[in-house]
């Protein structure tokens, strides 16, 4: 059984995530479809795509998502907004649908509301599926309005004795803006998205607009029986060597669902050793994994939620667990300074009246500090502003 080094893994994943060189605009669908691009916080997918196609402007990205609709955004893995090619909707949506007694992704928190209502998950989900097709003929501005509109549409179909409870203030926070019914809908929108019943449409000001898949794309959502295999191949190509537990954490699904999906490609995988433990890769990736390519780009400023940073074996990116806590936080991850696949520091950017100020903290020195400033300037230009402040801090252990 082959023993894979950390350097080989970093090099392989850089290539799989298309961070090894600058790519062309014609590669847009291939890049966004590698493993999807998270868009929370809003704009995360734009930064991720910029790091792969630096000459693609914000206007061009928005055109592909909102006008040409080559790309699509809706709730997907881990229940978060993800941007992916519209033609691969089956892979990023229906592949995630659970079977038998597997729980739906993201819905564990709904229990509090179900207990309050004394109603079952499937009962409420069935009612929501009866009314949500109304989105085929309209759009709704803002997530808050979407939750409440759908809750109101469901109200007449609820048992009469449950309706007063349905309209009570939410127990999840912001009771002045959300009802219990609105909270239930918020959880159930994730399963609805995986069934192609709701997507993000355009934007109105700073607010997202929601509608149905059919109303937005102009055609009906069509699941594919091979969707699970396709998703597994994407995952293993981008994040291999990996284990089913790594996959479950990345997808946000139960261990049972992860193991079921993993088995769909079991004949296409083989074991390798990493850090003394058995992991798996696609057999078709073995040659590339064992033969690292030269990198045309060694230094990068990745956004805090770039797909590359979503590796579950975080020691590959940064072995020091203390430093890991600075990279992956509960909220508001900073950007990552990446050198040859290793995170050597973090960065933050703050918009000011005169432009954007970027602050970089390094744990390891890099050969070309000027290159970091150049990257910072390129990013601010992409964000239609200028670099008004730039600072590099070397921590004691990096001198």
Q: In order across it, which strands form the biggest sheet?
A: 9-10-11-12-13
Strand-pairing-aware structural class: alpha+beta
- Rounded mean pLDDT is 96
Return residue spans where pLDDT drops below 50 for at least 5 consecutive residues: none
Walkthrough of the structure:
The chain is of the alpha+beta class. It has helices at 6-16, 28-32, 44-50, 58-67, 89-92, 111-117, 121-131, 143-154, 163-166, 180-194, 213-217, 227-239, 244-251, 255-263, 286-290, 321-327, 369-382; strands spanning 37-38, 71-75, 81-85, 140-141, 199-204, 207-211, 269-274, 277-282, 299-302, 335-339, 342-352, 355-362, 387-394. The strands form four sheets. Strands 9-10-11-12-13 form a five-stranded mixed β-sheet, covered by helices on one side. A three-stranded antiparallel β-sheet has the order 1-3-2. The chain has a three-stranded antiparallel β-sheet with strand order 4-6-5. Helix 8 (143-154) packs across helix 10. The two termini are 39 Å apart. The mean pLDDT is 96.
């Amino acid at each position: 059984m082959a023993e894979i080094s950390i350097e080989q893994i970093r090099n392989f994943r850089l290539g799989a995530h298309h961070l090894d060189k600058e790519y062309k605009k014609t590669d847009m669908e291939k890049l966004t479809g590698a493993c999807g691009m998270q868009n929370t916080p809003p704009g995360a997918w734009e930064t991720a795509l910029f790091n792969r196609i630096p000459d693609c402007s914000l206007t061009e990205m928005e055109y592909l998502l909102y006008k040409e609709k080559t790309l699509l955004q809706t709730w997907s893995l881990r229940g978060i907004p993800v941007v992916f090619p519209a033609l691969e909707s089956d892979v990023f949506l229906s592949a995630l649908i659970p079977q038998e007694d597997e729980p739906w992704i993201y819905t564990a928190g709904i229990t509090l509301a179900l207990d309050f209502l004394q109603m079952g998950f499937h009962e409420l989900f069935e009612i929501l599926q009866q009314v949500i097709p109304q989105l085929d003929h309209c759009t709704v501005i803002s997530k808050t309005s979407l939750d409440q509109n759908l809750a109101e549409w469901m109200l007449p179909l609820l048992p009469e004795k449950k309706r007063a409870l349905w309209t009570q203030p939410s127990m999840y926070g912001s009771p002045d803006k959300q009802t219990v019914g609105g909270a239930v809908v918020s959880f159930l929108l994730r399963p609805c998205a995986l069934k192609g019943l709701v997507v993000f449409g355009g934007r109105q000001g700073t607010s997202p607009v929601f509608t149905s898949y059919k109303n937005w794309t102009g055609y009906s959502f069509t699941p594919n029986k091979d969707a699970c295999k396709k998703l597994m191949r994407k995952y293993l190509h981008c994040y291999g060597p990996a284990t089913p537990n790594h996959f479950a954490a990345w997808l946000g699904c139960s261990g049972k669902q992860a193991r079921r999906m993993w088995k769909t490609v079991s004949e296409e995988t083989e074991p390798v050793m990493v850090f003394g433990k058995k992991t798996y890769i696609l057999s078709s990736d073995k040659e590339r994994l064992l033969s690292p390519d030269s990198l045309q780009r060694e230094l990068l400023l990745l956004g805090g939620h770039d797909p590359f940073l979503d590796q579950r074996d975080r020691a590959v990116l940064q072995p020091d667990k203390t430093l890991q806590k600075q990279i992956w936080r509960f909220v508001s991850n900073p950007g990552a300074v990446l050198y040859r696949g290793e995170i050597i520091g973090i960065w933050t950017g703050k918009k000011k009246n005169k432009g954007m100020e970027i602050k970089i903290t390094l744990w390891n020195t890099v050969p070309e500090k000027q290159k970091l400033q150049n990257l910072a300037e390129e990013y601010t230009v992409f964000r239609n502003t200028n670099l008004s402040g730039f600072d590099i801090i070397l921590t004691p252990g990096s001198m």
